[in-house]
Amino acid sequence: MNIIVRSFLKEFSENFGLTSKYTESDRFEFFSIYCAVYNEFRSTSFNIHDMLTGKATQGIDGIAILINNKLCTSVQEIEDLININGFLDVSFIMIQSKTSDKFEGTDLGSFVDWVKYFFSAENDLFSSDNMKNFIDMKNYILSI
Predict the structure, then answer these.
(1) Which residues make Cβ contacts (< 8 Å) with residue 23, sequence separation at least 6?
(2) Range of the domain at 59
(3) Of 40, 55, 66, 70, which is least surrounded by CB within 10 A?
(4) Other CB atoms closer than 10 Å to residue 139's CB: what's the count?
């Protein structure tokens, strides 16, 4: 990790009280998720932990599902938005973070493969509760 990113990570970790609780790798994952979601959502009022896929999840560190400019964390919230708005404008944000200084094409290929697998009908390799919730939300959205 270069010195500039490390500085941003240090400031982020201090601002969110993450310095002593988590490893640098975990803090960088949180930082990556925060940056990606903030870039699309433009709000700081969200819980990064709601976007984590779980330690046992391969290839995807975080997922955010934005619907009608709301960050959704459950099927119930999606149902409520349908009832209120009568439509869904959906964006999926998929995040994979790496702390290494080099960028490997195989890492990107692996990430794309896992994202495609997430959107496939057969995605039973994902076993964490968090990931099952994201899959339930995705399946609900695609069934409408």
Answers:
(1) none
(2) 3-143
(3) 55
(4) 12
What is the number of structural domains in the chain?
1
91-137 pLDDT per residue, tens: 999 999 988 877 777 888 889 999 999 999 888 888 889 999 999 99
Q: Residue 53: helix, strand or coil by DSSP?
A: coil
How many whole angstroms separate alpha carbon 60 and alpha carbon 48?
14
26-62 residues labelled b (16+ CB within 10 A) or e (exposed): bbbbbbbbbebbeeebeeeebebebbbbbeebebbbb
- Whole-angstrom Cα distance, residue 53 to residue 93? 12
pLDDT of residue 86: 96
